[in-house]
Amino acid sequence: MNQMVTLKKPEAMIFDMDGTLFQTESLLIPVYHRLFDILREEGHHEGPTPPDELMLGCLGMLLPDIWNKVIPNATDEAKARADELLLQLELEDLKAGSGVLYPGVKETLQELHSRGVKLFVASNGLEHYVKEIAGIHGIAEWFDDLYSAGEFSTASKVDLVKLLLDKHQIKNAWMVGDRSSDVEAGAKNGQTVIGCAYAGFGNEDELKGSNAYINDFTELLELYNQAE
């Protein structure tokens, strides 16, 4: 954690979901392999499943951008089917108990909520996926709202966060996330960015431009306590 920076206490915190609150690979990797098994069975894909690392490296992107990187030569029909399957299989596995939050997420969110901080999610994921994670893992009650690109059809996380800030009239927020899209969304909307360095899905420059960094989710509460 960056101990040298002095931050202003926020009225709200906006969280990315995958790689920030939710340990995505605990759900995604088994789903990913089943998805490609089905695509092959249905004639939408030939050859081996693309490497896990390729998919994990795309986390935080919008779905069309993910498939353009993972299966760039696939037909539009194949990519649309991959969209359907990803949501279907993820929801099935979530309801069956797959997937975990990062250590300390529940306790930290509950404490921040109890202190009057408004909490939001802004994710490039699908609406039902984001809401299902929050509901199943018992954190939905602490959030003022859950925003997803899937629900609002935003072209970027910058747009999604602007929508959130405008609707809830938030002037001073911390954008908390693990990808460059989170850094950009916070910075371009004039907000403080807290870079989460524990997921490891991106490259070493992924969080460049963050105002502070945390290596464990519980360090967020320490940053809040130190803020003025």
UniProtKB/TrEMBL annotation:
It comes from the Bacteria. Pfam families: Hydrolase. InterPro entries: HAD-like_hydrolase_sf, HAD-like_sf, HAD_sf, PGP-like_dom2. SUPFAM superfamilies: HAD-like. This is HAD hydrolase-like protein.
